[in-house]
Structure formats: C-alpha cells, structure tokens
Amino acid sequence: MAKPELTKLLIAETLKMLVEHMPLDKITVQDIVKTCGINRKTFYYHFHDKQALICWIFDYEIANLTRSSQDNMIINNLAEHLYENKNFYIAALTSNVQNNLRDHMFKIAYDIIMNKISGILGSREMSSNSMKMIANYFTNATIGCITQWASEGMKTPLDEYNFIFYPMTQDCLEFIVEKYCSINEKSTVDHDKRVK
C-alpha cells in the first residue's frame, strides 16, 4: 500500500477511535492531527475537511463490500457493515453539522437501485424519467430508513432489520417496475387498436 493511502487510513482510524470517546461534532481537525501525530497541513493535503474524511471512510469501507458482493446482497452487507461500526456511523449519520454522508450514501444507493431496475426490466424499456422517479423514491426510502435506524441507535437487531427491510424493498421495487411495464404494454396495445 502506498504511503498516501497509509496516511489516509491512519487519519481515518484516528477519527473512528476518537468517536468512541467524544461526540463527532466536538472532534476538530486539531484533535485528529494531535492524536495521530501528524500536522494540519498533512491532513488538509489528503482531506478538504472532516466531512470529506467521513465520506472517504465510507467509500473505502464500502468499496471493499461492493467488490465482494453480489448485487442483491449489497444493501444487506451495507446494513451489516454500518451495524458492526455503529458507534461511528450513528455519530456520522446523526451529526448536527452539514451531513455530506447522507448525500453521499444517496448517490451510491441510487446507482445500486438503478442497476436493480435495469435488471428487473431485462430487455423491456422504460423512459429515463420513469426510471429516475422510481430510483429516487426507493433511494429516499432506503437512505431514510437507514438514517432513522441510526438516529434510534441501531437498536433493532441486524438480522431482524435485514429480514424485514431487504425483502420488502426488493419486492416493492419489482412490483412497481412490473406494474409500470404492464401499464405501458396495455397503453401500447390500446393505442395500436385505436390506430387500426
């Protein structure tokens, strides 16, 4: 691993360690650099601010999950990862400062859900606007549920959370896409009958 990557990991691990002992909103860049023994210039060379560091931690950890996961398991694996690191992610997702992590998670979940929609569609077509609307709806539901779970302290056990959440989301997404295709096919048939 290259030295810049090691430095980023050191900074990330330091922040995660500090979150165990003090509220995230109270942790400053000065606290991070003092604890890990680097200077502020080194921190700012790698990260724009503390929120950028939080998003980098999420990206780094999620990249490892998505490489080793099948598409259907990514959301489950994400919930499992958040639960295993719940002190950090509860703090990050419920922070009172500008919360880039929620927005960042939204973008990642949106791409996953768009891929799921494409998979459900197969060779059938759907307008770009309809796909975006469905993806936005399910992404907001997914991130909203995860954020709510975090704000409640992730007290619902992971197996119960995944047992309820994933099948419900997957089944609803499939139902909506199939319903859209059914309505679209019916309107095409009706249109063809009127034209003849």
From TrEMBL:
Q: Where is the HTH tetR-type domain?
A: 5-65
- Which keywords annotate this record? DNA-binding
One protein family per Pfam: TetR_C_8
Q: What protein name applies here?
A: Transcriptional regulator, TetR family
According to its UniProt entry, this protein's organism is Lutispora thermophila DSM 19022
Its ancestry begins with: Bacteria, Bacillati, Bacillota, Clostridia, Lutisporales
Under InterPro entries, the record lists: Homeodomain-like_sf (IPR009057), HTH-type_Tx_Regulator (IPR050624), HTH_TetR (IPR001647), TetR_C_Firmicutes (IPR039532)
Keyword Heme in annotation: no
Where's the DNA-binding part?
Answer: 28-47
The molecular function GO annotations come to: DNA binding
